Amino acid sequence: MCILATLPLIAACGGGGGAGNLSGLNNTPTASAKTYETMDALTDATTHLDVSMLKNQTDFVSKSGTYSASTQSVTHVDTTAISDLNTLAGMDYVMGIQYADYQGFVGVTTAADDIPTTATTYTGSATARVTYNNVSYDLTNGTSDITLTQGNTPKLNVDMTFYDPADPIDQIVFQTSTFDGSRFSGGTVDTFKNNTAVDITQGDNIQSLGNLYGPNAENIAGQIIATAGDGNNSLWAVFVGKQ
Fold first, then answer.
1. Once rounded to an integer, what is the mean pLDDT over residues 133-151?
2. How many angstroms separate the most distant Cα atoms in the chain?
3. Nearest CA to 56 among 22, 106, 20, 84?
4. Helix or strand or coil: residue 184?
5. Cβ(241)–Cβ(144) below 8 Å
6. What distance lies between CA 182 and its chain's CA centroid?
7. pTM value?
8. Exposure string (b/e) for 161-193, b if CB count within 10 Å is 16 or more?
9. Where does the pLDDT of residue 20 fall: very low under 50, low under 70, confident under 90, or very high at 90 and above?
10. pLDDT of 188-207, one tens digit each?
């Protein structure tokens, strides 16, 4: 079952699938320098949009998608109309995409010179699918509290909270200092229930992919996948945030 089809963060907010590797990554952020248009008002001033997706729940893929103002579509592994993307509550510079076996985000990434140099906080939403002891749970209607700090090494901290007492965990904490311009990857994941650690992934096979979007990195969005070495436990989390 596809997490992004069953969970509302990307697939059901509006508009028209274990551990993975980072295949097809571009090393350069794709935002047009100093030019930022919101996703609902794109013109021919925008020529490229960053397309960051997860394929078959295993492989992260990031593309510099070509935007056509005349057809109001973005070309990545295929062509998707902007009207077929999914709006994300409160997010102006990024939208959700679900195409064939791909799920992820399309947006106007932040140019390196426009990333804040002081600590920046975000609030937003989160969803996750957790498999624990061979039982799968959909964690929905979560919240995210996010902090991005700069310095010699940038650091991203994402604290996701969930509220269903039947779920095996109620908190996911993701941290990474691996940045390439506006794009982040790698990192660590810790999971908790009532402030007590619950070892879902045992620190094995963790991957992530996400971006900062818009002027001054106004929006942030990302995905995390992790599995334990025995294959019985796994985690797939999706989060977005706005300053």
1. 92
2. 53
3. 20
4. strand
5. yes
6. 12
7. 0.87
8. ebeeeebbbbbbebbbeebebbbbbebebbbee
9. very low
10. 999 999 999 998 876 667 89
